[in-house]
Amino acid sequence: MKYICRECGQEIPDDAEFCYGCGALKKTAMAIDDTGVPVNEKSGVCPHCGFENKEGDAFCASCGKPIAPMMTAQVMIQRKLTTRDKIAIGLAVVPGIFSVFGLGHLVMKKYSRAFLYMAISAIWIYLYLFYIRTTGSMFFLWLMFEFFIYFRQSMEVIGLVYFKGPDNKRGP
User: Fold this and answer.
1) More confident residue, 166 or 84
2) Per-residue pLDDT tens digits for 64-96
3) Of 1, 94, 154, 159, which is least packed with CB atoms within 10 Å of its CB?
């Protein structure tokens, strides 16, 4: 069973009495079983302060906040980034500033998408060096389109890193 902090979303180790991220008490944390489903909590325990109230009380006798059994839906679970995830994000963001796109996709093993963005990069750099002037409205449109490609490919890699499918594989 895991305990997830209601304040910051970090996992609290079994041997700890409080969250190492924010200092909240472990007794206020949400219990989750090994499949990731919240465990039915004891009714009457305040999710805010951990005070054990009488069963059926609507408000905490200690802090006065409402005791709601549906508080579990409000917690967002954070997952730890692996080294591969950090490299993928770095290679999507940093070289993208210099119009080199697709490297983060390579790290995430999305080869067709990576080669698409790398082809866009090659065409982009070729046109910039030989045909686009550095002044005027055409240059402004050029920069806007470049920013769009940069933003899109960066968000795709971030989506691949943070969102996993139900079979525990990376996104589409």
Assistant:
1) 84
2) 887 765 444 444 555 678 898 899 999 999 998
3) 1
Q: What is the 3-state secondary structure (H, E, C) of the chain?
A: CEEECCCCCCEECCCCCECCCCCCEHHHCEEECCCCCECCCCCCECCCCCCECCCCCCECCCCCCECCHHHHHHCCCCCCCCHHHHHHHHHHHHHHHCCCCCHHHHHCCCHHHHHHHHHHHHHHHHHHHHCCCCCCHHHHHHHHHHHHHHHHHHHHHHHHHHCECCCCCECC
What angle do the packed helices 137-162 and 111-130 form, to 10 degrees?
160
CA–CA separation, 56 vs 52, rounded Å? 11
- Looking at residues 159-168, what average pLDDT do you find? 63
Would you mind telling me the total number of residues written for the chain in this entry? 172
Phi and psi at residue 26, in whole multiples of 5°?
-65, -30
Burial 139-153 (b: 16+ CB within 10 A, else e): eeebeeebeebbeeb
Distance from C-alpha of 156 to C-alpha of 170, rounded to nearest angstrom = 11
pLDDT of 125 > 60? The answer is yes
